[in-house]
Amino acid sequence: MKLTLTRVFGILMAVALFCGVLFSQTKTLVLPKPTRIPAPGNIQLLDGYVYESRTGIDSFVGAIKRKDGFEIRHDIGRLAGNYAIRYFEKDNNEVQWTNRQTLDGDDLLIAFLKDGRIIATYPKSTANFMAKISSQEDLAQFLLTVLTYRPPKPQVIGAEPKN
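Below the sequence we write its predicted structure tokens.
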């Protein structure tokens, strides 16, 4: 079969017509708005803060962020470990102060370092919170936020819910 100029032109016109019909039928894809993931442990966010979930390999990570860039990062889960405990050693020159408090049956270890970093850990629930402190306001807001953390209660499979 010989391709003549007329036949080639006809094929090109048919392809162009088909493409025109095909592309005129495209619709705009509307994606649903992403749902906001709540802060872990029912943390109460202070005014001006938002929660941002991040991707972790073996634990739950994220940040509680303020518009000016201050953020409280967290690493939570069995494999997260205890970030604060190493700063409770007697001869640690990095430490400005440490404090330990029991809240709802879990210790809270807080270490404030000379370089302005603060680390707070709930050892039983392996929840670590970290921030770089630049002002007294940052310190107060870090503590107010971290103190609202309440780990989820373990669920017993097959147990009847309490009324």
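The chain has a mean pLDDT of 83.
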